[in-house]
Amino acid sequence: MATMIDGESYLGKVLVRPLDKSGDVTIYLWPVRCLKSKMGGPTFGVDVKGEEVIRYDPHGPRGHWHKGGYDKLGAGGSHTEFPDGLTDTEGQISWALGQIKENGSEMLAEAGYPDAAKALDQELVGAASEAIIAHLAEQGDLIAKAIDEGLITA
User: Fold this and answer.
1) Model pLDDT for residues 76-97, shown as the tens digit of each residue
2) Which of 26, 28, 64, 109 could bridge across to 1 with cysteines, CB 3.0–4.6 Å?
3) What's the domain range around 109?
């Protein structure tokens, strides 16, 4: 799972689910990650043996994602914008989970993880996607809490 950064705040219970039968490929979710820049929202990503490869930051109008090997390329080298017009958090989450399901193997292979790409299990990807949606709903409105606590700005 991705490393938590000093100075950032994390609200809610972390969720981790396997995406392959061996458990080497996993997806994690931080229900709300509050960056030092006062922006935030859910953050989730795909790891291969503990190395973060893909990360999604569905933070509404300031949302973005990372591909190509987040840990290898760093935040700046892997930064990618969501498609034009996709500025709401729920839409970004839905789009991102769809990308993992439809293009996850290709993205893992392009990032240099061909074995992980072959091992990705679509049934587990679907179950993990459902678990993420359910977990976010279960955690409640943590973004409002983060705003109230001054951790992020609206």
Assistant:
1) 888 999 999 999 999 999 999 9
2) 28
3) 9-143
